[in-house]
Amino acid sequence: MADMRIKFLATSVQMQMHLGVFLPDAAIAASDSIPASGLKTLWLLHDAGGDDSDWMRLSMVEHYAQAAGVALIMPSMDNSMYIDMAYGGYPYFRYLTEDLPNHVRNLVRVLSVRPEDNYVAGVGVGGYGALKWALRFPDAFAAAAAFSAPIDIVGALRRQEDAGGLANDWAAAFGSAAAVEGTPDDLLLLARGRSNSAPTALYVDAGLADEASLPPAFAPLKSPGAPDMAGWPYWDSRIRAFIDDIVLSAEAR
Q1: CA proximity to 72, closest of 7, 9, 115, 19
Q2: For the chain, is the Cβ count within 10 Å smaller at the N or the C terminus?
Q3: What tens digit of pLDDT does each residue of 163-203 get?
């Protein structure tokens, strides 16, 4: 297996950005051990306040990916909230969806570019980013998953505003609830307008408190824990289930 850290100048944000890359044994063994189409790839997004190292330090995802023969791409997204920020002028979402895939695939040539071989998942606000990426680019992934994510992002912003105002990082990224509502950054709006024939499957925590109000686009990923659980012990169980039940089951079909 190979564990790499990459740093490059991203033209979209005009900054040096870094990311983690994990490649299973198939990528460094004989070339005939890699499928002709390339390795299945799981893009993993961290929560606010974290970075790319969270996944490798705080979960066992390396072991799950090694067993499944799946490559991992783990970008650092700062406190961007996975949005082209309202203040500061940094288009982080454009970096995530354009600069990052192009750069990584040019550098790491063993990754599959086929949508059916690519998956994205995130925790916390990274889950918001994962679902938005999949909804805005419906031909990019076979499946996307979000764990403990603010799926109703407008509602989450309003709750902060009603409690006295947005936290500084949320204010810098989103601006306000009104600035997000009805835009392509509004997940519920995107989900309600999604075609029933869209190829990407979307998964969220089973038993979410607001599950009844979620659009049918979101399918629950079976959970053995309480619906309001969060934190890395819980997220570790969720990413293992996603790899086992979604990524590997697609290969078996």
Answers
A1: 19
A2: C
A3: 999 999 999 999 999 999 999 999 999 999 987 777 789 99
Q: Nearest Cα to 40, choosing from 19, 75, 67, 8? A: 67
- Phi, psi torsion values for 130, nearest 5 degrees: -65, -45
H or E element that contains 7: strand 2-10
Domains of the chain: 2-149+200-252 (3.40.50.1820)
Q: Identify the band that residue 253 occupies on the pLDDT scale cut at 50, 70 and 90.
A: very low
> Strands, DSSP E only, in the chain?
2-10, 15-23, 41-45, 71-75, 118-123, 143-147, 201-205, 218-221
Residue 244 CA, chain-centre distance (Å), reads 17
Two tokens, residue 58: 């705080």
Euclidean distance between CA atoms 236 and 226, whole angstroms: 14
| Radius of gyration of the chain from its Cα atoms, rounded to whole angstroms | 17
The letter for the amino acid at 238 is: R
Longest dimension (CA), the chain: 59
Q: How many whole angstroms separate alpha carbon 103 and alpha carbon 204?
A: 29
Distance between CA atoms of residues 200 and 141, nearest Å:
6
Tell me, what amino acid is at 85?
M
How crowded is residue 216: how many other Cβ atoms within 10 Å of its Cβ? Answer: 9
DSSP secondary structure, 124-152, as one string: THHHHHHHHHHHHSTTS-SEEEEES--SS
